[in-house]
Design a protein that fits this description.
The chain has 487 residues and is an all-alpha fold. 87% of the residues lie in helices and 0% in strands. It is built from 16 helices and no strands.
């Protein structure tokens, strides 16, 4: 709930400090009553964990306990319990780290840690864990888990007012929800897109997304979601009314906003959602107060009385459930209202109580902010150390890479020289072999010539000898003549 302006109210009467101190336990007491049931669950689960076996069931119990602590607002303990679950999970013998059961339990614990860091206001750490969770769910291949992780990432970016990143991730989640035909997820994504457009002041686009979300939720009968989206639509109409100058346009927008708030309130009453009912009462009371400023005297008084009743009802319910934010807004609204009605004493009393709760909330916010700053410092310090280590590692790898390149170049150069030497030897060997072949051919040819000449000479000799033999008498003839002569 947002009010149009702040003011400093002057009043002759001031509540004594002692009386204000007496108010404190009365207005804070319901918060303890609200958490009693949750504390009972936490105590019961802690007792069971003392005797539980160190197995996956104990891991699931630790993760559930992390969820309870996160719901209670003890974010540090929520983180510790989820981390205990991870440590136990890693110590279980016989459970492979690549098994689906291990990955599922590990992913769930990471998601709990991310949620606790987000609620604590430590957004860098929240993103660190949810991105790690996303990697695991992508390994599991479960599109439902992946879409939920992406939605969580988008929520962190939206809280940080990083709307471009938030829109990008919500659209990614919407696409996955459409692929698996998850109507509830589709409706939620459109609602989340509407929230971003509303924060950007793009009211027409916001209403477009909200009405798509509303239609889908009505189709699947998601009553709580319908009430939420009706409330969101009403808030956009109220913002449009504040943005226009024409009194008639303002009045029309306020009427549209009231119509949606009343419809949302009826659903929340049937569901028994006390916090939602208180929020609806606050919103209706605020709009009636704003609308009274546009009306004539008679109508004005009627609207102021109705506004007062809705704000009182909102305060009563908020006290019963211990919602300090709604209590603070109810007191602030009533202070504005009583000032408009001329009830200075009541206005100042409510204003002081509004300041009391506001300061309490601011103190809590400052503690969270301080914790966030410390976490951010440690995170940045770790990131810087990691960056230096990474830079050194990169430098070492670069030097190693250069050495490897240099060594490779030496090997390449040496190989090239060896190849050239071998090639030269081969060429010389081929050339010598070719020359040897040519020499052999010459020798063979010369040998052949010699042989042919020798044959020709021998043939001539043989021929002359035959001639000589043909001219000379035979041996018998000579022998005969010799015997004749001797005798």
């Amino acid at each position: 709930m947002s009010w149009s302006k702040k003011y400093t109210l002057k009043c002759p009467k001031v509540l004594p400090a002692a009386l204000m101190l007496l108010f404190i336990p009365l207005v804070f007491e319901p918060a303890f009553a609200k958490r009693s049931d949750l504390n009972t669950k936490i105590d019961s689960l802690n007792r069971r964990l003392l005797t539980a076996s160190a197995d996956t069931e104990k891991v699931k119990s630790l993760t559930l306990l992390s969820y309870y602590y996160d719901s209670e607002g003890d974010f540090g303990e929520a983180i510790r319990k989820a981390q205990d679950g991870i440590d136990l999970l890693n110590s279980i013998a016989g459970l492979p780290h690549d098994s689906k059961r291990y990955l599922f339990l590990y992913s769930h614990a990471l998601s709990m840690i991310s949620d606790a860091y987000r609620n604590q206001g430590n957004y860098p750490r929240s993103l660190e864990y949810i991105f790690e969770c996303l990697k695991i769910d992508e390994r599991l291949g479960n599109k439902q888990f992946i879409a939920d992780d992406i939605t969580s990432i988008a929520m962190v970016y939206r809280i940080q007012a990083n709307y471009s990143q938030a829109l990008e991730y919500h659209r990614k989640a919407l696409k996955l929800f459409e692929e698996i035909n998850d109507k509830k997820g589709i409706a939620g994504s459109h609602n989340n897109l509407g929230l971003i457009y509303r924060n950007q002041g793009k009211f027409a686009q916001a209403l477009g997304e909200y009405f798509i979300s509303l239609r889908i939720k009505q189709e699947i009968g998601h009553k709580s979601g319908i009430a939420t989206t009706l409330n969101n639509i009403a808030n956009v109409y109220a913002l449009q009314a504040d943005a226009v100058n024409s009194e008639q346009e303002k009045s029309d927008c306020y009427d549209k906003a009231l119509e949606k708030h009343y419809a949302s309130l009826e659903i929340r009453k049937t569901l028994g959602e006390k916090q939602g009912i208180a929020m609806s009462y606050l919103n209706i009371g605020e709009i009636l107060w704003k609308k009274s400023k546009l009306s004539i005297t008679a109508r004005k008084q009627e609207l102021l009385k109705r506004s007062e009743q809705f704000l009182k009802d909102a305060l009563s319910i908020s006290k019963s459930i211990g919602e300090k934010t709604e209590i603070e807004e109810a007191y602030r609204g009533m202070s504005e209202l009583y000032r408009s009605m001329g009830k200075s004493e009541e206005a100042f009393t409510c204003y002081k109580l509004h300041i009391l709760f506001r300061d309490s909330l601011l103190n809590e916010a400052n503690v969270r902010k301080q914790t966030q700053m410390e976490m951010q410092y440690m995170f940045d310090k770790k990131q810087a150390a990691d960056s230096i280590s990474h830079a050194e590692q990169v430098n070492r790898e670069e030097i190693k890479h250069r050495q490897e390149i240099k060594q490779q170049r030496i090997y390449t150069f040496g190989g090239a020289i060896a190849f050239l030497l071998m090639l030269s030897i081969v060429i010389l060997s081929l050339r010598a072999n070719r020359q040897k072949q040519k020499a052999n051919e010459i020798i063979s040819f010369q040998k052949q010539l010699v042989e042919e000449k020798q044959k020709e000479i021998l043939d001539s000799i043989y021929y002359a000898r035959r001639i000589q033999r043909s001219l000379l008498p035979g041996e018998k003839y000579i022998d005969k003549k010799l015997r004749e002569h001797l005798h």
